Amino acid sequence: MFTIRHNNMQLKLAIVALMAAFTLAFGSMVRAQPVSTLQVHASSSIESAWMAMQQGDFKHAIHLNKRALRGNLSTAQRVIAYNNLCVSLHMEGQLLAATEACTSAIQLDRNYWQAYNNRANVAFDSEDYVLAERDYDAALRLQPGEDAIVTNLKLVRQLSASLD
After folding, report:
1. What is the pTM of this model?
2. Packing angle between helix 44-54 and helix 75-91, nearest 10 degrees?
3. CATH number listed for the domain at residues 38-159
4. Closest Cα partner for 90 from 52, 114, 62, 66?
5. How many CB atoms lie within 10 A of CB 68?
6. Which H or E element spans position 97?
7. How would you class 31 by CB atoms within 10 Å of its CB: exposed for 0-12, middle for 13-18, buried for 19 or more?
8. Those residues with Cβ within 8 angstroms of residue 155's Cβ, 6 or more apart along the chain or in another chain
9. Which residues, given as ranges, of the chain have pLDDT below 50?
């Protein structure tokens, strides 16, 4: 599930087809997954990438976000493009590149909680639960009470506790 911010309104978007395909492909291997957060603003490439993500076409979203990043974007738009690139790369299983994209967003805006949340999701899927918890904590300090972060932090703590 994604939490998407668009013009200051939150929408919940379930990628049902993707999860259904994943469930069919991997059956009992499916486990609870952290919630990613996205933001969409102004740039047509960023908006087109978001639409591709909405349709589950993460490869195309990667291409569009990279194209946007080659263009003349404001710092705020670059942060959004890097964050959305992170999510798309993550969904395509490119975990190292996803981490780098989220880190680029954070370097541009240390207060952009969505990038911390999404970098934590990558760490979670890399089974680096210590790093995941650290980034979820950072995101929660920046955006107290945010449902996606609270959900993700609870999930990583439960998993960590079950491994101890």
Report:
1. 0.76
2. 20
3. 1.25.40.10
4. 62
5. 24
6. helix 95-108
7. exposed
8. 32, 34, 124
9. 1-30, 40
**Residue 128 token pair:** 């680096």
CA distance 9 to 25: 34
pLDDT in tens, 17-47: 333 333 333 333 335 667 666 554 557 889 9
Helix (H) / strand (E) containing 38: strand 36-40
Tokens representing residue 84 in the block: 């959305």
**Tokens 């964050």 sit on residue:** 83
Nearest to 101 by CA among 136, 41, 113, 116: 116
CA distances, 58 to each of 17, 54, 93 (Å): 13, 9, 10
